[in-house]
Amino acid sequence: MQKVLHINADKCTGCMQCEMACSFENYGTYATAKSRIKVFEFHHTGKKVPYTCTQCDEAWCLHACPVEAITVDKATGAKVVNETTCVGCKVCTIACPFGTINYVQETGKVQKCDLCGGEPACAEACPTGAITFIDANWTGLGKMAQWADKLGNQPTAV
Amino acid sequence: MSWAGKILRVNLTTGTVKSEPLNMDWAQAYLGSRGLGTKYLVEEVDATVDPLSADNKIIWATGPLTGTMASTGGRYTVITKGPLTGAIACSNSGGYWGAEFKMAGWDMVIFEGKSAKPVYLYVNDDLAELRDASHLWGKSVWETEEIIKKGLQDPLTRVSSIGKAGENGVLFAAVVNDLHRAAGRSGVGAVMGSKNLKAIAVRGTKGVGNLRDPKAFMAAVKAGKKVLAENGVTGTGLPAMGTQVLMSVINEVGGLPTRNHRDNQFEGAKDIGAEAMATPRKTDGKKQLVTNQACFGCTIACGRISKMDENHFTIENKPQYRGASGGLEYEAAWALGAANGVNDLEALQYVNMLCNEEGIDPITFGTTIGAVMELYAMGILTKEQLGTEATFGSARALAFLAEETVNGRGFGKEIGQGSKRLTAKYGHPELSMSSKGQEFPAYDGRAIQGIGLAYATSNRGGCHLRGYTIASEVLGIPVKTDPLESQGKPELVKAFQDATAAFDSSGLCIFTTFAWGLQDLSPQMQGACGEQYTVEELAKIGERIWNMEREFNNRAGFTSKDDSLPARLTSVEDACKTGPAKGKFNELATMLPLYYEARGWDSEGRPTAATKERLGL
């Protein structure tokens, strides 16, 4: 079963545990500036929205890379940057429609979410369930269950 | 480790910015944030200095756990000699600024001297420089943050700044970061303004690392988060209802000071508490509360984001207040509401936004309005003087006087001096509900004995955050004690004060202590910093910090006479009128000597030589 990161922004409180977990997993330090998942705050509405790579099947970044530095992890489905191959040309950052692959000045390479090899640290750290790692085929299951519950609780027609 | 190991020293007179190594001996002994910043202050500043003079210094300090994954690890403290009290002032804030500053690679920044013209400090990792702020002077906190971010073309910059109140010398001006998180109390914003320092803008990309034992630390962090999640207060009550959950609870025990402490229960409490915020309004069918919000690293998320009724009289033709913004916390709702007898929730939210926008402490402001309304009721202050009628309960008067205060207009200038100076000027100092010149927050010291003692002995003046005995006396955390009973309270107050000093100095939020004790802090400190941070050591560090603060105040001229409460709280004539505490007044005279004894102080409230020796002072 392939799993994906699933985001429910309504549950996000803006605590940044995910950003710290991501940077700690990848760099051994708590540095939100280095996180591959970002939380956006829209203060005029009070909304907080975590956002990261959705691991497209037909990944623009992968196809755009001139040196084939981005490959598919067959076990997780993640599109993974091979840092030794990456030349830092940034074409992938232009190709990605969602902005979720970005250049890192300090390394001269790009970085993106690689699902931590199958155990994403962000989902593990999220205290509210705003970020979960669930069955790729059934990301709608939670919402379906909510609606089903509503339906089940309808007063019976007389 | 997990200290960055570096501090910034900014001389505003000469315009120089220098990096220097953190004094690691002090860091080990005082942790960080409140404790360590205060250690630097008391070593470098004469306790008798005029708080608003160039000789005073002001420090922004993070703790060793600030910027880590420890839950609530986003906090920083602003430390200075306070202009409202003349005592040590340290005011703690959440939001995101503290972690950003730590991630830039700094533990603290010390400002000394006074700039000839308005400046702000810009920090981007190793780069730290003073920049011209003449275009920011006269701007609100909200405008300042927006202008700085736009100017830098960097939306990820975090800003800690003052609004007009800090510039104008309002003695309870706050330092505000991330739009609505504040180092709110004791007038730290006025000291910032007195130095022509408008803001500190920070971008930190280095991160916080060098943990002593990363594996052990992460395990301790995970265990700590679990305790918070499973606790009724931190896991359910605070995220859902915020601190406002307290309004009905405190009112029921008869401990909700009302109309400048003339009453101890408020008939309008139900209109201004958590339930009211979550109930659709009759006017537009919408709830005031939009959502909750966490500070950096916090897995509790007690913060409120609220939205006003667009047709409320206070915001007619003022579109800037129609969006979602920082909502009412319990202390603000009480101070703006019950303390003045005002039960208009929308008006309270409007004034709450003004407090954030221009940077003032809603507790001291609201309590000062309570005194103004009492003087008005007595006929001492008039409509002509105030520019408004000011009967208890008037939302219009509250809103008008708030606007006058934050903008430094009319009678607002006198309100900006706080209740102690204002009531003294009009011949009724007994009407200032304060200790050491700082106004009491939302718990009645007559109905809740321990908190009265905590107010009287707080090193920064009247304050609930230096020893929150409400946890024990009302909520039963960690054990229930009788709020009406003074026996045992001196020891309780001391224990809360010491543990709080340790939590404050670690870089974590004191709200964790609804679920955590030092036994939960210890493994996190051990994983991050050093094996020596056992429960006993942390308690000792807390006590050391408390005594250090006390000695600074003693050198500043405070004596045991200042460990006092107004007669309204201690006299039988003014005892509680209603509820379970009816007939009660604070038994401070009985408790204070026992408190001194428990602290190892002499009868004048001075730490004895033996106490200082024991604590390594």
Q: Features of this protein?
A:
A: 158 residues; alpha+beta; two-stranded antiparallel sheet; two-stranded antiparallel ribbon; 8 strands; globular; B: 617 residues; 26 helices; 13% strand
What do these coordinates show?
The complex is a heterodimer of chains A (158) and B (617). Chain A is an alpha+beta fold and 158 residues long. Chain A contains five helices and eight strands, in the order βαββαββαββαβα. Chain A has helices at 17-27, 60-64, 91-95, 121-125, 141-152; strands at residues 3-7, 38-42, 47-51, 70-72, 79-81, 102-104, 109-111, 131-135. In chain A, the strands form four sheets. Chain A has a two-stranded antiparallel sheet. A two-stranded antiparallel ribbon of chain A has the order 2-3. The radius of gyration of chain A is 18 Å and the shape is globular. Chain A starts with a strand and ends in a 6-residue tail after the last helix. Chain B contains 26 helices and 17 strands. In chain B, helix 2 (33-44) packs across helix 21 and helix 19 packs across helix 21. The mean pLDDT of chain B is 98. Chain B has 617 residues and is α+β, with helices and mostly antiparallel strands. The longest helix of chain B is centred in the C-terminal third of the chain and has 21 residues, at 535-555. In chain B, 39% of the residues lie in helices and 13% in strands. In chain B, strand 1 (6-11) and strand 2 (16-21) form a beta hairpin. Classes of the chains: A alpha+beta (158), B alpha+beta (617). The A-B interface holds A 13-17, 20-21, 23-24, 27-34, 43-48, 125, 127-128 and B 67-69, 71, 74, 96, 99, 103, 156, 179, 203-209, 214, 218, 225, 229, 239, 290-299, 301, 305, 307, 323-325.
Spans of chain B of at least 5 consecutive residues whose pLDDT stays below 50 are none
Please, what is the oligomeric state? heterodimer
- How many extended strands of chain B? 17
- Return the structural class of chain B: alpha+beta
- End-to-end separation of chain A: 44 Å
Strand content of chain A: 15-25%
Secondary structure class of chain A reads alpha+beta
- Most residues in contact, chain pair and counts: A-B, 26 and 38 residues
Largest sheet geometry of chain A: 2 strands, antiparallel
Order of helices and strands of chain A: EHEEHEEHEEHEH
Q: Please indicate the percent range of residues of chain B in DSSP E strands (runs of 2 or more).
A: 5-15%
Unreliable segments of 5+ consecutive residues of chain A: none
